[in-house]
Fold:
Amino acid sequence: MKRSSVILGLILAAVVGLNSAASAQQFRVYTEVSVPPQNPEPGKMQGEVVARSLTIFHAGRVFDWLKTAGEVTIFEPAHQRFVIFNGRKLIKTTIDFKEIDRMLASARDETSNHAERLLNRDDRDAKTIATSLQFQLNPKFEHSFQQQSLMLDLDSPKLEYHVNCGTTPIPEAVEAYMEYADWTAKLNHVMHPRSLYPAPRMKLNESLRKHKVLPVKVQLRVDFDQPLHLQADHRFAWQLEKIDRQSIQHWENKVGDPSFKNLTFRDYQKAILNETAQAAR
Structure:
């Protein structure tokens, strides 16, 4: 699994159909994803920031701006779909929830069959890859939650989540955020097939729901074919600012801008993946 693909997985996943109460709430989340230093110097604990995003919950929709990619994703639960556009490439697309689930089911079958074939090979590396794929499809964690410190841990031999949690003055915000995070994890894997399968992240969301908390700092450690350590820092604000509303208006105008070429989801995906591949060279 390529490191860049896993980073995209956390970026897009870490950052809801909303119920009627939650859809009336408005809040924002600013996220930074970084690669923590392996041997941090005293006073220099911040690692390399690889992505920044802004997520705004407003009027039953969620707007997610991934600054590093120049991409805005709009979650529209009332219409059971995502609208996505890229301001740099002047392209846009729409994908509905049913299509996401259909594509995920197909990917799951292909991945499961591929893992079975790898297990039948007399190759230690192949069996290691197969085990990691099977875990992603059906993850099992040891859970622990410390109520006093609001620390949540999901542990397994190959993948771990360590989360500093926080509470919210808007109880409905937990379900709103988690449902959105579930769908974003699904969308990310459909858009970036080399990223982590969504099931591990959805297990984390399930635990956050259970304890009625939100993620403030998420550390992900992966040890599949190559080790990876990522950290996502989330800053929640429970009131929108003037600039947030201006951003929403700007993005809504872009959706209807005739200069943006409307593509099928597959064509949009190809354009984005081609850009990612070129940037990685």
The chain has one domain: 3-280. Residues 3-280 form one domain. DSSP finds eight helices and twelve strands in the chain.
